[in-house]
Structure to design on (306 residues):
C-alpha cells in the first residue's frame, strides 16, 4: 500500500493515551511510533540524567512523572525497564493500587511472556508482552528502524488481536511466541545480535593492530555479504579455514591471537569448534581433515594431532 493512501496522523483522533515507565532506549521510540499512529503520549518516568535527556529528545512535550502517576494518566502503559527489574516493578505497581482495571499494560522484555504481568492482571489490567527484535540507540533513528521489525508477541488469547494491532501500528510485524518459549526465543536473539557486536568489535581491534587504517570500511562489505548468505543459505554459507579443514591456518590464527590478543583466544576456539561441528554435520568439512583441525582446537599442535 502506498503511503499517499494513508491518513495523516495529525488528522486522526487520539484513541489511547500512552505512558512510558522507563525512558531507556526502547520506550521513547515505541511511544513516538504510537504517536505517529494517532495515539497520544501523556507521561514518561525518567530517573537518571541520561534517561531525562532521552525523554526530552524523543518526547519533548511529554511531562516527566513518577511511575504511579504515569499509570494514572495513561490508557496504555509501556513498561520498558531491564528484565531483572520488571517482576518487582509489576508487583509494586499492583500492590500500591496504581494499576487500573481495563488498562493495557505492555512490557518489552524478550525474556518474559505475559505471566510476569499476573499481579497487574489480578488488578484488572490487560497484559501484553511485545518485544521488538531490534537493537536501539536511544535516538530518533530507532523509530525508522521499527518499520518492518519483527516483534515477539505473547498475550492471553483474547488479547491476541489487540497485541498484533499495536505492533502493526508501530510499523512492526507480529510473531507469536508461546509463553514457555520466551527464554529460548530471547537466547536465540542474544546469540545472534549481542554476540555479533562483540565479534565485530574484536575483529576491528585486531585489524587495527595489523595496520588496517579503516577496519570498518574493510569489514562492512564482507560482513554484509556473510550475513546475507547465512540468512539465505544457512549452514551452506559456511566458508573459511575451519569449514575447509585447514588445520595449519587455524593453528597460525591461534598462535597470533595468543601473542597479540590473548583475551580473544577462548572466543575464537569456541566459535571455531561450533563451526567445525556444523560444517562436519552438513558435509562441508571432510572427515579426514577434521581430526587435525579438532586437534588444533583442543590445544594440540598439528604434528601432535598426527
Amino acid at each position: 500500500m502506498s503511503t499517499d493512501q494513508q491518513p495523516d496522523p495529525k488528522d486522526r483522533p487520539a484513541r489511547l493515551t500512552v505512558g512510558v515507565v522507563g525512558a531507556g532506549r526502547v520506550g521513547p521510540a515505541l511511544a513516538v511510533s504510537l504517536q505517529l499512529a494517532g495515539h497520544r503520549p501523556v507521561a514518561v518516568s525518567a530517573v537518571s540524567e541520561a534517561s531525562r535527556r532521552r525523554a526530552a529528545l524523543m518526547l519533548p512535550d511529554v511531562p516527566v512523572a513518577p511511575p504511579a502517576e504515569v499509570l494514572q494518566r495513561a490508557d496504555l502503559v509501556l513498561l520498558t525497564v531491564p528484565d531483572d527489574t520488571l517482576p518487582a516493578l509489576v508487583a509494586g505497581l499492583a500492590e500500591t493500587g496504581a494499576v487500573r482495571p481495563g488498562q493495557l499494560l505492555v512490557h518489552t522484555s524478550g525474556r518474559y511472556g505475559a505471566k510476569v504481568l499476573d499481579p497487574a492482571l489480578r488488578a484488572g489490567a490487560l497484559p501484553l508482552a511485545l518485544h521488538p527484535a531490534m537493537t536501539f540507540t536511544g535516538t530518533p533513528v530507532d523509530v525508522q528502524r521499527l518499520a518492518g521489525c519483527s516483534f515477539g508477541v505473547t498475550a492471553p488469547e483474547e488479547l491476541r488481536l489487540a497485541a498484533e494491532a499495536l505492533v502493526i501500528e508501530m510499523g512492526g510485524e507480529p510473531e507469536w511466541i508461546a509463553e514457555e518459549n520466551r527464554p529460548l526465543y530471547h537466547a536465540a536473539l542474544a546469540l545472534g545480535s549481542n554476540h555479533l557486536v562483540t565479534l565485530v568489535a574484536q575483529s576491528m581491534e585486531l585489524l587495527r593492530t595489523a595496520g588496517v587504517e579503516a577496519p570498518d570500511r574493510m569489514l562492512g562489505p564482507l560482513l554484509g555479504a556473510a550475513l546475507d548468505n547465512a540468512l539465505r543459505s544457512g549452514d551452506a554459507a559456511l566458508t573459511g579455514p575451519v569449514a575447509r579443514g585447514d588445520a595449519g591456518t587455524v593453528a597460525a590464527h591461534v598462535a597470533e591471537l595468543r601473542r597479540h590478543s590473548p583475551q580473544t583466544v577462548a572466543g575464537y576456539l569456541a566459535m571455531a569448534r561450533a563451526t567445525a561441528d556444523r560444517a562436519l554435520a552438513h558435509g562441508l568439512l571432510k572427515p579426514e581433515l577434521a581430526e587435525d583441525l579438532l586437534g588444533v582446537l583442543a590445544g594440540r599442535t598439528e604434528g601432535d594431532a598426527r
